[in-house]
Amino acid sequence: MDTERLYSDRARKMRSSEIRELLELSQRPGVISFAGGLPNPNAFPVEEIREIVNRILDEEGGKALQYGPTAGLKEFREELVRYVGREGIKAKLENVFVTVGSQQALDLIGRVFINEGDVILVGLPTYLGAINAFLAYGANLVGVPLDENGMRVDLLEEKIKELRQKGESIKLIYTVPTFQNPAGVELSNDRRKRIVEIAEKYDLLIVEDEPYHALRFEGESLPSIKSYDKSGHVIYMATFSKILAPGFRLAYVVASEEIARKMIIAKQSVDLCTPTFTQLIAHYYIRNGYMEKHIPKIIEMYKRKRDIMLEAMEKYFPDGCKWTKPRGGMFLWVELPKHISTIEMFQDAVKEKVAYVHGKAFHVDGSGENTMRLNFTNPSDELIEEGIRRLAKVIKERM
Hints:
The chain is an alpha/beta fold. It has 2 domains: 3-45 and 295-398, Aspartate Aminotransferase, domain 1 (Alpha-Beta Complex); 66-290, Aspartate Aminotransferase, domain 2 (3-Layer(aba) Sandwich), CATH 3.40.640.10. The protein is built from 14 helices and 14 strands. The strands form 3 sheets. Strands 2-9-8-7-6-3-4-5 form an 8-stranded mixed sheet, with helices on both faces. A 4-stranded antiparallel sheet has the order 10-11-14-13. It is globular and about 60 Å long. The N and C termini lie far apart (49 Å).
């Protein structure tokens, strides 16, 4: 059968995630993987969840196993209103809805806002899941460089002016402001305020993707971009995958009532409803104070792992390599000398039984071939140093 003839134009644009394919190689026996963006299984609160599950099945079993509203359970959304309120985000029930992971939220944004050729402004580098979600709807992704303080908002405004002069249709700005995936950098407070001013000035949306906000190891917590939004220009997204359990596939969106309603309508044709069972578990977990006790334990574990990786890199990596020193999150970013391709080097690394994600995958302009992302949260403490030693050997051979 000629299936290619039958595919939609949108399906022809779809591409497999490079990270997913690399993960298959990184899961070979004996390979120490820094490739995946995986939380550590030891961070999952198994016993607490077991206790909550038993209680829910005893008290609300019928409800837990039934369909639910598309926007999410009312009591869970009410809890989320209080939860984001502690972050300075003023929201009502009508502003909040639940999604099956943040990736679904990104897809819904594509469905609702992106026409073929619309410009989406993203960081250089930026999250690969967002790149793939937006490209599937025909977006024209334009990169804005990052530095140690996150997206260069001065260059962002220059880029907007340039694109407007060319008659381009610009829809939104996508950013991961806190401990960015993949670079690990943090958007400064001044830039958070300024990006809202830019969005209001040019009447653009900001998609604020905040999966790592709670995973701060040091430094003062910064206000969300959404907390500066007075005109409904910011769509805020967050997830429980990094602080509770990724297997629950629970995330949420905070947006203006109009935008939230339109995205919920789009969601109706995707999944009808988010799983009721996992929402009840998360609701109980937050309401009864489990989350507040659990997050410090994750932070302690992940900070230790970050420190082990940074110390190993100082010990083993050759001169000419640069890397970020993130104050939280799950990743750090490595820049090698310009002549080294981390794409070509990957097979050498796998032979040495160590894996990473090459940086070009995160660049919408085709740059970044000498960069790579390393995840420090998933490997055991002992394997982090050994993995960095192996990786340093491969880099030295290339140099």
